[in-house]
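To the wet lab folks,

You asked to see what we're planning to order before we commit. Fair enough. Below is the target structure as tokens, and below that is the sequence we designed to fit it. If anything looks off to you, flag it before the synthesis order goes out.
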């Protein structure tokens, strides 16, 4: 009997499950996610689930981790400061594919160099400028990203730049050709930048999580869920953390299939920070052919076709003045629920809320708090940001007592983006406490937060809400609306239609059940599998609004952790053969291009290299009983009644179950 441990670190909760031979769940447990050190929450959840199942730690044969850390970091704009080394491109190329927005002011070095489409050198690499850039920034960034023109056809300049980065700075470095085999330099550069930004965060999480498991007595190897639902070794995840974006959502889809047996459905997983929507077709998650998209970023990472929206139980509630009327909208930023902060620091939060309740007029920062997050590197802060962080110090404060000028709101936003401070404010989780749907934190603090928010005045001069319950219901109704829109957008896109129709007045009227001379009925024609700890609280109303079957499996709250256990190790390696001239077949390898006089020897050479690379990587990931498959995509053209070879792309796939350690 093999005992398997699955762990998922979500934005609010860390879940753990123990399974027996992938056949049944032995026990499940939750612990609050500890944002300052995620491993603490991992340890608490693992200890709880071992106690629940009465299983000795040494009996665990495999541990697997899925995490929303990378996804949430990209959605919330967090991560380390990085530098991009951009080889063979023009200055204006930095503006392409959202690269400038992803860099957000981080340093860039545009160098001569790079290669052409056939792998020939386009220009000599400018090492002099590169060395000067490295000396300038070796201490003010956490890592480097390298992207060279046509590096997937010849990575020589990326490899040389990586070598110099390591020699001069000792910092981690991400090369674009190691993350994707596809063309598209700016998007590969974006992927490398995001990978570099995440390395420190993921490395710290995995290292601490492994240490925590060892301290508990779990000595089994640890796996990590990739964005396509497959498993990778913890060592591989540390070097390629970008592949863990959508890790948690991908695990949830694998878990949803295991829990429900659904073949064709939408899967919607609501967490603390995001709602993730994906499609199950033929029992398998649909893979995004264009690369994973998270928030504003379209990467080249192979992952499930997941639509991630900044909407969750801990999404910030915003006041919206709409003419004479007023309302609320949610997200995309996650904040700390006031009820949770009051649960952790009642001596500060409750008295301040009571003082604000006695005020005759609503204050701009009523019901909002701030605290520092300890253990996060604070290098390279601007003077105003550093001053604000020092003022926050070690305590919990009302936001109005910390911000002295409006200019400091920008500093606060930057500190939140770096993960250095947390803001607490009204969230759907607080609203659920007021409505009696949740009872885990401080319900009285949630009531006061709702009351304070409801005192805001609309354009007509009326209160937004007269009672905490009315305010709370407005928040939950808005969550129902935004979730329904997210599901409709996913379904419309899958059907090849304009997703903007999701918010069209006719679509919304058709779901509201309003009747008139014209009969309009809209909704979904497939079931929705609702996952997440709060799905049972929020999603029945979503199913009613969309007029579809809403499946809410009993273990849906730990679907991510289940998916982390039942996944397989899958490694894919892709390579290309081009034909620079008639009778010449060029195989593009990491070691450099190799030329052949016929297509079959070239195909055989590339297939041998790719299958061996995939097999070795799968073994390194801990796979056993490896199966190998190769797909060939050979493109030809007709020229003067002859079929001419144009290009070939080969993909080798190695799959296997993770090895189980003997107890």
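Sequence we intend to order:
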């Amino acid at each position: 009997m093999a005992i398997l441990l699955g762990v998922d670190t979500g934005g609010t909760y860390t879940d753990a499950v123990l399974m027996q031979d992938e056949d049944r769940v032995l026990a499940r447990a939750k612990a609050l996610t500890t944002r300052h050190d995620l491993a603490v929450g991992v340890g608490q959840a693992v200890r709880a689930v071992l106690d629940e199942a009465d299983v000795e730690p040494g009996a665990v044969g495999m541990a697997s981790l899925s995490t929303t850390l990378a996804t949430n970091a990209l959605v919330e704009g967090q991560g380390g400061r990085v530098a991009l080394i951009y080889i063979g491109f023009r200055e204006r190329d930095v503006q392409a594919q959202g690269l400038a927005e992803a860099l957000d002011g981080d340093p860039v070095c545009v160098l001569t160099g790079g290669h052409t489409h056939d792998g020939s050198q386009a220009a000599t690499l400018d090492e002099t400028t590169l060395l000067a850039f490295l000396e300038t920034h070796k201490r003010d960034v956490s890592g480097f990203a390298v992207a060279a023109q046509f590096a997937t056809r010849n990575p020589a300049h990326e490899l040389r730049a990586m070598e110099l980065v390591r020699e001069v700075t000792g910092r981690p470095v991400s090369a674009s050709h190691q993350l994707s085999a596809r063309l598209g330099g700016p998007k590969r550069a974006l992927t490398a930048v995001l990978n570099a930004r995440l390395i420190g965060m993921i490395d710290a999480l995995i290292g601490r999580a492994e240490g925590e498991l060892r301290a508990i007595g779990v000595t089994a190897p640890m796996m990590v869920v990739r964005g396509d639902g497959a498993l990778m070794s913890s060592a591989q995840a540390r070097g390629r953390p970008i592949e863990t974006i959508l890790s948690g959502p991908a695990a949830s889809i694998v878990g949803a299939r295991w829990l429900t047996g659904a073949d064709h459905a939408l899967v919607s997983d609501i967490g603390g920070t995001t709602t993730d929507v994906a499609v199950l077709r033929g029992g398998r998650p649909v893979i995004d052919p264009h690369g994973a998209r998270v928030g504003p970023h379209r990467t080249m990472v192979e992952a499930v076709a997941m639509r991630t929206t900044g909407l969750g139980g801990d999404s910030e509630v915003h006041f919206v003045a709409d003419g004479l009327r007023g309302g609320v909208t949610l997200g995309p930023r996650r904040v700390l629920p006031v009820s949770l902060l009051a649960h952790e620091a009642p001596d500060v939060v409750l008295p301040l809320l009571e003082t604000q309740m006695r005020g005759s007029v609503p204050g701009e920062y009523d019901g909002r708090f701030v605290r520092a997050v300890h253990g996060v590197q604070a290098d390279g802060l601007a003077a105003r940001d550093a001053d604000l962080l020092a003022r926050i110090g070690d305590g919990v404060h009302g936001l109005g007592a910390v911000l002295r000028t409006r200019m400091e709101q920008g500093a606060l936003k930057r500190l939140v983006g770096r993960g250095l401070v947390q803001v607490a404010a009204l969230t759907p989780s607080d609203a659920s406490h007021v409505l009696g749907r949740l009872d885990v934190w401080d319900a009285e603090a949630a009531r006061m937060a709702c009351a304070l928010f409801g005192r805001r005045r609309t354009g007509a001069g009326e209160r937004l809400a007269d009672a905490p319950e009315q305010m709370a219901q407005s928040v939950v109704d808005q969550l129902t609306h935004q979730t329904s829109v997210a599901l409709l957008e996913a379904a419309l896109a899958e059907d090849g239609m304009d997703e903007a129709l999701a918010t069209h007045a006719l679509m919304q009227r058709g779901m509201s059940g309003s009747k008139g001379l014209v009969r309009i009925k809209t909704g979904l024609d497939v079931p929705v599998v609702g996952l997440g700890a709060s799905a049972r609280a929020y999603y029945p109303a979503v199913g009613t609004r969309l007029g579809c079957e809403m499946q809410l499996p009993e273990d849906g709250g730990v679907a991510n952790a289940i998916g982390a256990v039942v996944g397989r190790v899958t490694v894919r390696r892709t390579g290309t053969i081009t034909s620079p001239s008639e009778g010449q077949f060029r195989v593009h390898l990491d070691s450099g291009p190799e030329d052949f006089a016929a297509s079959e020897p070239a195909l055989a050479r590339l297939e041998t290299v790719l299958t061996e690379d995939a097999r070795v990587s799968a073994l390194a990931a801990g796979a056993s009983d490896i199966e190998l498959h190769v797909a060939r995509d050979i493109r030809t053209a007709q020229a003067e009644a002859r079929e001419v070879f144009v290009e070939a792309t080969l993909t080798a796939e190695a799959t296997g179950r993770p090895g189980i350690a003997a107890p």
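Structural context that might help your review: Residues 80 and 200 are 7 Å apart (CA to CA). The radius of gyration is 26 Å.

Thanks,
Computational group
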